[in-house]
Amino acid sequence: MAEPFLDVRSQLLQALKGSGTFDDLKTQVRCYLLAEIRSIGPAKAQPQPPRELPLVQRAASSLVLRHLRASGCAYSLSVFSSESGLGGVPLEPHDICDILRLPRSALAPAPTVAGGEGDSELVRALGAVGRLLPSGRESTATQTGGGSSPEELESRLRAVDRGLEASLLRAAEGAEPAAELEGRLLRYQREADARAAAQVAAEVARVRQVELAQVRLSEAAKARAEVQRVVAQQQEWHAAQLARFKAQEAAAAEAARQREAAFERSLLRAGLRELAESQRRELAAESERLSRERALIDERAHELAAREAQGDLARERRDGEAAYQHRLLALQRDEAAAREQLALARQERDRGAQTLARAALAREEEVATLKAEAGLLHSRCKALRSRAGAGEAMREEESRASLQRSALEVGEQRAAAREAQEAASQAVRKAREQTRRVAEEHQRQLRVAEEYQQQLAATHAQLEESLAAVRRAEDGAAALEAALVDERQRASHLLNETEALRREVAVATGGPPAAPRAPPLPAPSAVPSAPPRFTPSWRPAAAGCGRGGGYETAAQPPAPPPAEPAALRPPAGGGGTEYTPGSDLFSEAFESSAAKLRELDVRNASLQRQCRTFLAGSSSALLGVTPGAEAEEEEARVEREARRAAQEREREARAAETRRLAETSRFAQATASASAAISTLEGASDDSADISVAAATDESDSGGGGW
Fold it and tell me: How far apart are CA 455 and CA 231, in angstroms?
């Protein structure tokens, strides 16, 4: 169980890494953790309202963004583009040149080098700025004279400030039209996006209202036609199979849904835990590495600053010492000259005190000049030391600026992580919306299946009613058969009594008992539609002439049933099974019961006719009168009535059989149509689900990835 889970987890991790989702999730979790850690701290920052970026800052951010894109730093680019406020769309190179007051040739595309990559716009802009700046080498001359006063220096500094302020104002005034133009472009882009979204929504609504409605109507018509064609063959089997399949499908779907949901939840939890743990470890390692690198950079910066200051001081000291040695050599030469002059003065002491006084004054002047030069050298040394301190202050400012840049990069990373989190949440919402729509489509298909099932249930109820009517007809036939049995018993009893009365009359008259005459029957060709009947022949029973005696009835076998009428047979190729008489037990039993009814009717009519004949013969024998034409007419009338009654019963039985066969045929056709309709409905459900998914996919593609 653990190995498939590990395989699935590794496949999921590879898929996330291949699509870039893994890096996005890492960035999101990293920024979320940093935000949480910073929010827990004592100095919780207050949210700053969004502010409009100045054009100079936008131009600088655009240069950095283009530089990161040209350097292939995708991660830093994603962080910086989200936190810089540009929205991933940097300014054009000519706009950047206009804002920063650079020549447009400075950002012209440079030819690629052998490695396949050229310099970015940032590198070319820095090179252009370096070329525009004056050279760092200057020739300075030293003049011994009085320095500038502090008031003059202050006035010069104010003039420089005024010039800078005026240049900044000119730059801001030149940037206003560009900002206004950019605002108009943004508004036009928003309006165009809104119009495109409205058009896409209208098109999707039209497709849903017209085309999907037509597809549903055509599919419903086809399904109804199939249901009406097939329902007559497979209804009973379909009802059992449908219930069983529905239960199995519901159970399987529910179990699969639960297993899938549990599996997805477990995978998601495991993936998130592993992702959070790995990102936590990476964040810790990266924070340690950044702290070490920051410490090394600070140490190297201090060392470089100290080395530069020491080098400057050493150079200034060497220059001062060289100047001092030069002045000292000059002083030594002057002293040598003075000594020579003193020697000359001593030699020429006689020349006078005035020459000595002039030489002493010249010496004193030279000493004062040397002292002044020594003071100037000392002040220059102090100025050099102050310049070295200013360089160290500039390096400290640079270090503070680098710290601010690192803080800005961290903020950009946090904003990029926030945007990645929002994108992930939007993707989750889209997935949920798509799942909800698929579930709604499935529910709609289930409702359509339930409607078809209700229609099948109604058809089944109608067929049950038809079967109940057929059963009632069978019960009526059984009751009629029982009534005929009772009538036969009564006729037999009456015949027995008549025979006994006849024997008594014969005994009373003293003659032998006369054999009963059979009534005249019409020829078979006279009445072609008459039912089959028995031709009884009467003879005395072997028991003699007692009251318990009787007559035996010799009957001919009944004629075969008539052929099945063409109206009862279903048409060839009608989708149902062709009905043939005697093809099932029900038809055979019905035919046998009809034959028995006809036989009983014929026998009852014969018995009644024989009773009337016997009574007429008995009364004629008693009165000495022979039965004439009236008796024969009466017998013929009774026989015609019996035949007519038998024909009516046979027609009713055949009509009931025809109705039963028609109901059975319709029931079989409805069953077969239902089975075919189920398969068609399943195919139509799959097609409609495919149509819905395709429509949702087209809508998501045309709507820019949103539902």
Answer: 11
